[in-house]
Amino acid sequence: MSSAAENGDTAPGKQNEEKTYKKTASSAIKGAIQLGIGYTVGNLTSKPDRDVLMQDFYVVESVFLPSEGSNLTPAHHYPDFRFKTYAPLAFRYFRELFGIKPDDYLYSICSEPLIELSNPGASGSLFFVTSDDEFIIKTVQHKEAEFLQKLLPGYYMNLNQNPRTLLPKFYGLYCMQSGGINIRIVVMNNVLPRSMRMHFTYDLKGSTYKRRASRKEREKSSPTFKDLDFLQDMHEGLYFDTETYNALMKTLQRDCRVLESFKIMDYSLLLGIHILDHTLKEKEEEISQNVPDAKRPGTQKVLYSTAMESIQGPGKSGDGIITENPDTMGGIPAKSHKGEKLLLFMGIIDILQSYRLMKKLEHSWKALVYDGDTVSVHRPSFYADRFLKFMNSRVFKKIQALKASPSKKRCNSIAALKATSQEIVSSISQEWKDEKHDLLTEGQSFSSLDEEALGSRHRPDLVPSTPSLFEAASLATTISSSSLYVNEHYPHDRTTLYSNSK
């Protein structure tokens, strides 16, 4: 999966050339997908809802669709084919878990022609996206489909325990049989919405061995870059606020441990970066060019599965962003090292790679020629640790509140000095009141009063009382209420004493 694949770009000059997969035209594959899913989902609605049982994960339903049609199936213009549905009840539960109703699922896949996407990957798979941007349909190899089928019970358990996940969300596994050829397809969530332009797209594995986009890939209108390209372009990483960063890293750690437990490796993080700080003119051009998105109902949810919901769940954080600002399409807010405001779209892809004998042999051979720790193929535990370390240290970073800590320290020091100064001032105020009372009772003259009241320890040349008061207040950067009380009444007391002496 890639930026070009997700954004619906095809290679220039090849838009009129129809692709083939296993000697089957892509148009025939698309037609068979829509007819088969339309029949099987419609037939599933007649079955009552119940809990998923263990044997449901191994059920395979099959229907034959001849070109001339039958009592159960419509006529079509494609060769006769048989359509198989794997674990229909289990996948129905998965769709319900993600809030996808049967009618919406059918409408998204069957109402409009599927859009074929280009694929820069080495697997040779075909990619299709639904016209409403909701689902990705990918052809998979026999071993991948078989592995997904074995993975379903554990996948079911993981989704029940952790609905917040960046792992692929599988909505259906099917197989089209025609002319002795089996074409297996899987329906998944769309990670990068086409209606949101991705200024940069990366396929990250945490590996550095040959992890740079090819020259052919770079010439595309929306290339997909790799790890070494990211380290060169975004050498400072991407920055999040503390809450978002913690939620993202927690989700990644949990997902990697799940993949490790299933002995899965060689997966990638598909990362799409949309720069919000671009001009309004560019946004207007994007809106005018996205004609299919203009047909979307205004009340429809942005996407069934968004990046923000994947790390924070469909609670207040995810829904708040969707309802308050639909333009974000559920992207995760972040900043670049230049201070640019970004929206990030991401998901873990290509998880149907098990560390089997062939992968072990591949790693052993590459380790003899190259540094074994840098190649992408590796044992699952090492792969997960290297993947997480790369994401945590090189890709995603937390915004450090540099100005917050000193101000807090200063506030704490001010509070402490304030308390100290108030104690000093209150003691001085009490001493002055006691001294004033003694002088009034004795009825001394102004001259003797001046000598004793303003003198300090029989030193008439020093006046420490009032200066010490202001020194204590200045340390706290403010004058306490007690000091103001003493200073306001000091001249008044002197006037009263002077009149009494007269």
Automatic annotation (TrEMBL):
Keyword Nucleotide-binding: yes
Any Pfam family matching the protein: PIP5K
PROSITE patterns, A to Z: PIPK
GO MF term set: 1-phosphatidylinositol-4-phosphate 5-kinase activity; ATP binding
Gene3D superfamilies in UniProt: 2-Layer Sandwich (3.30.810.10), Phosphatidylinositol Phosphate Kinase II Beta (3.30.800.10)
GO cellular component: cytoplasm; plasma membrane
Subcellular localization(s) per the UniProt record: Cytoplasm
Domain PIPK: 25-395
Keywords: ATP-binding, Cytoplasm, Kinase, Nucleotide-binding, Transferase
Keyword check for ATP-binding: yes
Region listing for Disordered, in residue ranges: 1-21
Protein name per its UniProtKB record: Phosphatidylinositol-4-phosphate 5-kinase type 1 beta
Taxonomic source organism: Bos indicus x Bos taurus
